[in-house]
# Entry
Amino acid sequence: MLLKLSRLAAVSLAVLGLSVGAPTVSIAQTTGSADSGSRSHARFEAVRRVIQQTLQEANVPSIAVAVVQDGQIVWEEAFGYSDRERQIPATPHTPYSLASMTKPITATAVMQLHEAGRLDVDAPIERYLGGVSLAGYAFDADQVTARRIMSHSAGLPQYGNFYLDGSAPAGSEQTISRFGMVVFPPNTRFEYSNIGMKILDAAIARTSGLTYGEYLRREVFGPLGMSHSAVGLPGGAEAAVRYDNDRHPMRMYMTDHPGSGDVWASAHDMARFLAFHMGTPLSDQEPILSPETRMEMQRPASVYPMPTPPDAPRRDIGANWILTTSNGHPQIWHSGGQPGVSSVMAFFPEQKVAFVLLANSSAPLGPIGQAIREAIAPELLEQTSEPSPAAPQPIPFRGRWVGTVTSHTGQEPITLSFQESGEVTVQLGDQAGTTLAQPAFENGAFTGRFSGFSNIPEAARASHGLSLKVVPVEGELAGQLVAQGMDANAVFMLPGFVRLRPEGAQH
# Structure
């Protein structure tokens, strides 16, 4: 499904056939003399070839790249068209949709307010929402803090709502009151959640007295010299048109969780963002965080890492930074993927190098990232191999489990029946019972998918299926049932809270 994080590559929605005559439109900008610019161009020639190959083989409209080393942007270049129909070349200053690369920017704002004593990252986040409450259901909403939200350990559900038809997204109060729910016990597991970022952008606005976008403009983008960055389309620059899986241009769309994925920025601007967070700011940048707070963002904020294949390096989570290694060397990164977007950025504290890649469609960015590593610091080059699949775990549940799905529209009954054969059947409300597809027990959670209809009104915007995820909690099962829909007008992941007990068990 969309928005799932992958290893140093943005989500790839599809890889299509060859394009005809993908253009080479490049604008290289380096620091230093003309001779140093020529040397930089030659240094990255192999990367340029990989980018050109990606443009052609994956039919990607454009890719912008920037590399930072020792406090300087040593290479920035763009390839292809930011707008194919109007034949507008991409440049390093073209704003692209960042998707989930927005999250470290949101975290930066949160940590600024924390450092100023205006938002305690370890206090209940409801304190900063102006009376809007989270639905705790079976769990304590006071345990949902900004620190846990930023490390995806707050117990919040999977969520996403993309208004591809260009309609106006729901506001903060409506979105949080309907979908800001605690579905897992807080501080017990990793669960990637966009609704948490919505909660944080609302807290930023409430605490600062500014809109989320205005706060970022004044306190983050301005001081860091990010002149082509904004929540939504920046003014004064031709932004990169997003292209769908069939490479048709998409209309401008927004989400109802802007702190998760609604920032647009250029490769040049994101290189500046990385330079600051790496501790090697450019000479004209203002310090927007103390060194101590900046480093705090880069330390694990939870003992629960992101799930990875058995032989992959551990991935911890800081303040919306993913913390892992590249060939044994520390690597701090984030990626992004949503309809019409692929993005990735990473920095390497030991080597003082960083890179960002932005594309205005689905794109396989991993090989480009590998080529950049080889060019800037060969010791970072990862040894590629097929990840070993995790050994399947037996499903530890048997018999009938009965309970409810609770959403902002009310409750409906749900029943799971675990068979000795391993088959699992599910019945939701008065819908016909069906077999659960892909039932599995991994990372302490039981998961599966089935065809059915959610009673959440927002899910009527597109055809959808249902995805179940529950964990054992004191003899019960608790978690989420998510309506997952996608068509030309909407993409969404809308959760309800699931609670199940063995049939006959006392309440």
